[in-house]
């Protein structure tokens, strides 16, 4: 059997999620704050603006949008035009904690260190969560020491706001990745769009009103996670997911129409995502603990910790057992996965540049799924994740390719 070669690394230095906020800062005309080392490079070639909104739609990959353009006519009108729609890479793995931290810091996963949903912490000798269940012994500021771009933009003279769910204001992930500026919270999607609109109107005169001097640049980070939650529960081709996409489309169109009416070309609205998603049938969600004992022993006998997520496993092995573990997983799942050792992944650039403190967080053997399966280590996670239909994390185009749309119509 000829196995497909491992995929190329994400384009971290080009069309990548981590380039959005530096490019936005440059488009806003932000310059280095003296002594602070700020740098906003416009690698994405964004147009000049004095108001910039980054709409992060959790879970809306480029392939999912392409498949459902009939239910998102406003977004599709931007997606279809090369001048207003592009495709970016998410990082490795294609998961929220890694992608939002790359967005928020402008760093690769190998630099910021949030290398998965669950990550092995060597000093604690256990696996810790990087999303909603941070270990109390993991300090976000030491785990991820790089400044956020929102904070850097604020220091460089912009007014900055995050509009998200209320519970994320004090979350460990926000502290690690997206701190800086004001925070406004609302439970429902429509309320978040309106909060962002009201905040802008409170900081900027509308067209035709008289002002003195140059306006303060405004940077808005607007987070929508309803599609991701719906996709995990029902799947990305479900009626529930499509209905949520329709609601997002309507809210985005209303929001952009209001900004265009009051601010015209001053306002740049960009929409992107942190990852895509694929549906996994119930019978293809494989519980490793449900396998025959002999197969469990072959797969996990030399594995000390399992981290990552069901579509991208980090296997931390006993010393010197990497090759044995790689061979066992290739025998069991080689037709559905890319199984590589850490050195292969590092040499291929999967995680981008990797800092020394991050090396131990990357598995000795990595199992990246490309087939229509997901691999669950329920001994660590419990059985609840087995009910999730939509999954992501791996390097397939459906999971790693995300849209970048200019919703306000400027060419990008």
From TrEMBL:
Pfam families: Phosphodiest. This is Alkaline phosphatase family protein. InterPro entries: Alkaline_phosphatase_core_sf, Phosphodiest/P_Trfase. GO terms for molecular function: hydrolase activity. It comes from the Bacteria.
């Amino acid at each position: 059997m000829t196995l497909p070669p491992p995929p190329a690394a994400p384009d971290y230095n080009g069309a990548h999620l981590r380039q959005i906020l530096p490019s936005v800062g440059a488009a806003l005309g932000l310059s280095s704050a003296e002594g602070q080392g700020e740098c906003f490079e416009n690698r994405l070639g964004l147009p000049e603006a004095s108001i910039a909104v980054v709409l992060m739609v959790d879970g809306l990959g480029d392939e999912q949008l392409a498949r459902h353009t009939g239910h998102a006519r406003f977004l599709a009108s931007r997606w279809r035009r090369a001048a207003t729609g592009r495709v970016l890479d998410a990082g490795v793995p294609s998961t929220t904690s890694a992608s939002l931290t790359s967005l928020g810091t402008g760093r690769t996963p190998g630099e910021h260190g949030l290398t998965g949903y669950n990550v092995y912490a060597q000093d604690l000798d256990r696996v810790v969560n990087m999303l909603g269940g941070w270990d109390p012994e993991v300090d976000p500021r030491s785990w991820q020491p790089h400044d956020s771009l929102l904070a850097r933009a604020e220091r460089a003279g912009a007014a900055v706001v995050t509009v998200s769910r209320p519970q994320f204001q004090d979350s460990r992930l926000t502290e690690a990745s997206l701190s800086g500026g004001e925070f406004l919270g609302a439970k429902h999607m429509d309320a978040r769009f309106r909060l962002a609109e009201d905040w802008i109107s409170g900081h900027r005169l509308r067209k035709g009103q008289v002002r003195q001097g140059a306006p303060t640049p405004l940077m808005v980070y607007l987070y929508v996670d309803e599609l991701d939650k719906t996709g995990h529960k029902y799947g990305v081709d479900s009626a529930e997911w499509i209905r949520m996409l329709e609601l997002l489309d309507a809210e985005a169109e209303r929001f952009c129409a209001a900004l265009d009416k009051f601010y015209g070309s001053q306002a740049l609205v960009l929409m992107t995502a942190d990852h895509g998603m694929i549906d996994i049938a119930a019978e293809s969600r494989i519980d490793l603990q449900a396998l025959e004992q002999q197969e469990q022993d072959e797969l996990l006998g030399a594995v000390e910790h399992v981290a990552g997520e069901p579509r991208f496993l980090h296997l931390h092995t006993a010393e010197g057992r990497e090759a044995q573990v790689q061979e066992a997983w290739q025998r069991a799942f080689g037709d559905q996965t890319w199984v590589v050792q850490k050195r292969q992944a590092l040499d291929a650039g999967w995680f981008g540049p990797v800092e020394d403190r991050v090396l131990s967080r990357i598995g000795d053997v990595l199992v990246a799924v490309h087939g229509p399966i997901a691999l669950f280590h329920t001994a660590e996670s419990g059985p609840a994740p087995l009910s999730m239909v939509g999954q992501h994390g791996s390097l397939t185009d459906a999971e790693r390719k995300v849209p970048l749309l200019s919703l306000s119509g400027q060419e990008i």
